[in-house]
């Protein structure tokens, strides 16, 4: 990447989420002049957290950092200290609580089994054998996990998440179900995990330290102006919006969050409780203080409601089905033809990235740009 005098900035980075912040940080560290544009009034993208009544609240859903990538861990550790939070979610089915992911504690709760042999035997008994390949998600789940696990831990949650019965959902949504025949409740097996002790917003703030940032600035509404300022554009917003939806709209799963402030020190005893029955309208309750072992006399919980996708909704999870993949391919063709613009991140690539993957991809792109 050669600096020419014509440009005020070597790169304008669109989006101040983890992807945009990592690219801007890396380029700046190597002497490039970057401008970061963010349309929201805050940095950190969906990892944004904010302190309310002394409790750090994850504003766009629970965010747990975990990675097996040492390069990424060492990178984020430059900007934040992480606590030793280990994610071990629970499932509440009609008031009874089970451990997740499925392990010896779950089997003991469901069936009272106390040995791996007994649990495996029970699973074998439970699994439904079909004379055909599973035709829908219900058949797939019954063939992999059997009736008890399906009814107690899969059916209601999945139907709420997708807004339709499991019999109308494709079998491929559950390719396999991991069963652990140990008493290990850890959700992630990555060697590095935790929550930044000062929060994700502070982490990103440190990454962007000394870099010019404009909040509440939508690049797309002033595109030609910013194109004239910067030699390169790194776009981490939605790829379909960049091309003015010329190939159609990409769909996302979206969520609605509802907070409750409670005058009690401890509402559910854990950070994340899934509600797996069909009657409870939300899928999860997050009790934020437990991510950082908070001792406040009060608490804040957030109920998470899945929502049917509509174009104005906040895009959360890409839906990588055949229709969306075909649309994406056409956008990627257009993206490859762009010489000034590079696309990156969860929205820029329409890819479900965990935070560590987003940062890893961002660093790789920045390093590639530095070599050009
Ligand atoms: C509910 C939920 C829970 C999650 N939980 C976890 C978890 O536990 N662990 C984990 O590792 N990952 C988790 N993730 C994934 C994590 O949020 C992403 O990996 C991460 O946010 C990706 O960062 P990004 O910068 O690519 O995208 P984003 O965070 O979406 O940032 C993109 C930014 O670009 C801005 N932008 C878009 N268009 C424009 C424009 N035209 N002009 C200016 N700015 C623009 C947006 O406002 C946004 O701030 C979760 C995601 C969701 C949705």
Please tell me about this protein's structure:
The chain contains twelve helices and 16 strands. The strands form four sheets. It has a seven-stranded mixed β-sheet. The longest helix has 17 residues, at 355-371. The mean pLDDT is 95. Helix 5 (137-145) packs antiparallel against helix 6. It has helices spanning 18-29, 70-77, 104-111, 116-126, 137-145, 147-162, 200-207, 223-229, 239-242, 322-336, 345-348, 355-371; strands spanning 9-14, 34-37, 49-52, 55-58, 65-67, 90-93, 96-99, 192-194, 212-214, 230-235, 252-262, 272-275, 284-287, 299-307, 317-318, 341-343. Among the domains are: 9-83 and 192-249 and 319-371, Rossmann fold; 101-173, no CATH class. The structure holds flavin-adenine dinucleotide. The site of flavin-adenine dinucleotide has 35 residues, from helix 1, helix 11 and helix 12. Flavin-adenine dinucleotide is lined by residues 14-20, 37-40, 45-47, 60-65, 218-220, 236-237, 255, 316, 345-347, 353-356, 358.
What are the defining features of this structure?
alpha/beta; Rossmann fold; 7-stranded mixed β-sheet; 372 residues; single chain
Layout: helices, strands, pairs:
Elements: E1 9-14, H1 18-29, E2 34-37, E3 49-52, E4 55-58, E5 65-67, H2 70-77, E6 90-93, E7 96-99, H3 104-111, H4 116-126, H5 137-145, H6 147-162, E8 192-194, H7 200-207, E9 212-214, H8 223-229, E10 230-235, H9 239-242, E11 252-262, E12 272-275, E13 284-287, E14 299-307, E15 317-318, H10 322-336, E16 341-343, H11 345-348, H12 355-371
Parallel strand pairs: 1-2, 1-10, 2-9, 6-12, 10-16
Antiparallel strand pairs: 3-4, 5-8, 6-7, 11-14, 11-15, 12-13, 13-14
The protein binds flavin-adenine dinucleotide.
